[in-house]
Amino acid sequence: MGERHREEVLNTILAACLGRRGVDADPETILQKGRSRPDVMAVMRGLRCAVEGKVADTPNAELVVLAQAKSRVDQGVAHLAIAVVYPTYIRSVQFSRLPEELGSASLKFSVLTDADKATWHHGSVNEILAELRRAHDVIVRDDVLQQAVDTLNIGLAEVSSALLDSGATCDRLIKLLGIGTKGHAETAV
């Protein structure tokens, strides 16, 4: 009988493939005093990314790996997670050819954040990284937008507080803006 690789071997090779593409990735990383053990832990542009992998011949592979990946984000172990389903044939590829074969194989994957609904894609490690970059950009954009909204809310609260404390200022603003009549400052603001 030929070689038949365990899932852990495939995860280790996947971590190496990610590493060759510039992503700092470590297989079977133990975090939080041994409680969490993602198949691969990577750092993508400063965000932690957990990768969970299953071979397609595993019963309910998609559901199982998706639940594992989602739990990494829900537990706060990672900002992003990738659920990967390896094709069954990859188990029997000769070990010396495994990095090349896994690097170019069409994998089924889903990139997860705490805000996104899971969507499955097919593609190589390069497509996984492209999808990961898109998810990273959404997270960063959402964080920047949230910070801007928070800052704006604080500023508006300060302005409205200052205006409510000064009836004369409100009267002058009403006149300048032409939005009411003098003497109605309390109801206009």
Describe what you observe in this structure.
There is one protein chain. With 189 residues, the protein is of the alpha+beta class. Helix content is 48%, strand content 18%. It is built from six helices and six strands. A six-stranded mixed beta sheet has the order 1-2-3-4-5-6, with helices on both faces. A hairpin with a 2-residue loop joins strand 2 (40-44) and strand 3. Helix 1 packs across helix 3. The radius of gyration is 26 Å and the shape is rod-shaped. The model has no long low-confidence stretch (mean pLDDT 82).
Compact description:
This protein is of the alpha+beta class. The chain has helices spanning 7-20, 61-74, 98-104, 125-164, 167-177, 185-188; strands at residues 24-27, 40-44, 47-55, 80-86, 107-112, 121-123.
Jot down its keywords.
six-stranded mixed β-sheet; rod-shaped; 18% strand; 189 residues
What's the β-strand tally?
A: 6
Low-confidence stretches: none
Structural class by secondary-structure content: alpha+beta
Report the span from N to C terminus: 81 Å
Overall mean pLDDT = 82
Can you tell me the overall shape?
rod-shaped
Beta-strand proportion: 15-25%
User: H/E element string?
Assistant: HEEEHEHEEHHH
The total of helices stands at 6
